[in-house]
Amino acid sequence: MPLSAKLNTLPIIDIAPFLQSGNQEARETTAKAIHQACLDYGFFYLKIDSYVDPSEPEELTRLAREFFASPQEEKDKIALKNQDNARGYARLKENVTNGKADNHEGIDFYRPVSNPDKTRPLWGENQWPSIPEFREKYDIWIDKMKALGMIVMEAMSMGLGMTQNEWLDLKASVNDSFWVMRIIGYPPLPNDHDGFSCGAHKDYGCLTLLYTDPTKGALQVFLQGASDESSQSTRDDLPEEQGSEKGIWINANPIPGCVVCNIGEMWEIWTKGLYKSTLHRVVHRSSNYRVSIPFFFEPNFDALVEPLPAALRILQQDTATITEDIQRGKSYDPVVYGNFLMNKVGNNFDTGKGKYD
Ligand SMILES: O=C(O)CCC(=O)C(=O)O
Ligand SMILES: [Fe+2]
Predict the structure, then answer these.
(1) Is residue 20 part of a domain?
(2) CA count, 13 A, side-chain hemisphere, 37
(3) Residue 352 domain-assigned?
């Protein structure tokens, strides 16, 4: 679909039909819808109320609020610096995106490693708040999101027309996901803050499954090249450091029973740019304290991420889908996920760049 034909709202895709193992037609239809959403937006709402009871993530945001409302010295007890500088709590404005402080605080968790060593980047231990049931409830969520990530990956493999063996190969590179979970707290963004609640960025990994509280008008998604026909959207340019492409920022307001799902840069490599990782940001100006819980379903630490034969077949068959980036010569070089991640995190330590840069 040409960019101009895109609607200024993100599609809603129910995962329920894909979970009907005996109904191949229903599974194919869901897989096709996800494929189209990845071509057009890199973002979609995934309706998951058949998979997880909506009261579960509501309880998680309650626990998160309890933590963020506790005294600063209590929160600092699980500070990032106690561990590997990646796992733990970051204070309000500690993270920087595009050179500007983000108006949020948060706790980051990564897949546990077998021989933790906090002197090695990423190789420390997760730090949990001491609030009763916090860890137990979040551990259940992590397991569910890991399984959901794998379900969406399978649907994407079908959407791309992968053979069963091709899917098994891809599955082997994500079946021990080096996942990340963030619990983010956003106070209202002051008018005079030089920056955003969370600055514009692309997610760098594989799939993001984002649960947020019901706050509207906070998460915004950049539709590159789209025109401004909706009164809800604002015409804007990209931040200077990301080029000067025109487009619009649309609100991705939460929908009950759904998570927002978006694809990260690993999918750009797997598909040689056929699927785009899309810029997004958070601008939370309402008066409440907003909580979001992104779960990043990532490849295995040692996974080699390289263009998939199924994506190359599509690109060869249909020259109309050859993206501008390929025409511009962007190479989508293969990466080993763990090296890519270490480079990113290492950069953050050395240069003071933030985790979203
Ligand atoms: O809080 C949100 O809605 C989005 C957060 C986000 O984009 C991220 O953590 O990568
Ligand atoms: Fe993000």
Answers:
(1) yes
(2) 23
(3) no
Give residue-wise pLDDT tens across range 113-139: 999 999 999 999 999 999 999 999 999
CA of 157 to the centre of ligand 2 (A): 23
- Ligand minimally distant from the alpha carbon of residue 180: 1
> Is residue 357 in a domain?
no
Which ipTM score applies to this complex? 0.99
Name the residue among 273, 275, 219 with its Cα closest to residue 250: 219
Name the domain count of the chain. Answer: 1
Give the pLDDT confidence of 266-300 residue by residue, as tens digits. 999 999 999 989 999 999 999 999 999 999 999 99
Which domain covers residue 121, as residue numbers? Answer: 3-345
Within a domain: residue 293? Answer: yes
* Å from CA of 23 to ligand 2 middle: 33
Ligand number with the minimum distance to the CA of 95: 1
Whole-number Å distance between alpha carbons of 78 and 349: 18
Q: What is the CATH number of the domain that holds 188?
A: 2.60.120.330
The helix/strand/coil state of 52 is: coil
